[in-house]
Amino acid sequence: MQLDAQNKMNLHDLAMRSSQDIMSIWDKSFELVSTRMSFSHEMLELQQTQDVSVFHKSGPGVDLNLQSTISVKRTEFYFEKRELPITYQLYQKRRLDDGLSLTQPSPSPDVEPVGLVRYEGMFHDYELSAIEKACDQVQHDSENNVFKPMTSHHTIFQGECRRTKHFFRARYLWTKAQIEEPDAERAGGLRSDVSAIPDWMQFVISRMELVGVVPQNFINGVALNMYHDGTIGIGLHSDCYSRFDRPIVTLRCFSSARLTIGGHHLGENAVAVVDLPRGAVLSMLKDSYAADGIKHCVRNCDMVTKSAALIFRHLHNECVDEADRMREE
């Protein structure tokens, strides 16, 4: 449609007056940002559903052994082969240069696996609520000095504790000050001066073993990240293979969030994003792009309220053994 000069002036005047009206109702101005959806690639999803029988042993107040069924939705993520991220191509080249095969299976010659698998429905609602109550108890016990001193690490921002990282069986050095400590490289950067894994966490591990997320007796270290008010996530990082075997598995509690892979400064211009509904379990697979070819983060803008992530890992046994020796020195 062609507009004459008068109509153009009228539309311009309307736009200017509308913007002034909008600005007048805000208490403060907000900087426009373009980070929420600035992803270079969309991932394809392959979904399957499996019914899993869960055996509940009798316990306090329950005299009978019970059995129930959970319907678990399993989602695998892929990139189209014709539009692979540059970082994916570099990861493939590095593996081939190192004489390693590209071992992740693919359901089609037109796609390549990302190495992320999401599970939904692994816990009944009452089970998930019990897990979240136990997470709150960990935070309460930490604040009352129940655990060993190095178990919990707090992030203070604008005078408030925004995030607490709790480590069980072993912690890893992650802050700038920590990695500059003498002997920081010993034991792969692990330290075992923390409390043991609480008994209730074994319930979560057993369920993941039942569904096939991890092998039996694979998990030997757990971390709990409590995001107290959803104002800050966690920065761009990778889980060092020198410390941790794969898969690396997380359970999202209290509220939904999103995991971003790639990007800078908490994920601007990132590669892709994965939704993590409350109760979702996400696995970063062994020998995969997601685990070893790119960093990941939870951006501030993808947190909305209180949240938590339980992170289950296999710590390399030789690193744990050396960390134990360091503690005894």
How would you characterize the overall build of this protein?
With 329 residues, the chain is α+β, with helices and mostly antiparallel strands. The chain has one domain (44-328): Jelly Rolls (Sandwich), CATH 2.60.120. Helices cover 26% and strands 30% of the residues. It has helices spanning 5-25, 86-97, 125-143, 176-179, 199-211, 289-292, 317-328; strands spanning 44-56, 66-80, 111-120, 152-157, 160-168, 171-172, 190-191, 221-227, 234-237, 248-253, 257-261, 272-276, 281-284, 296-298, 307-313. The strands form three sheets. It has a nine-stranded antiparallel sheet. Strands 9-14-11-12 form a four-stranded antiparallel sheet, with no helix packed on it. β4 and β5 form a beta hairpin. The radius of gyration is 23 Å and the shape is globular.
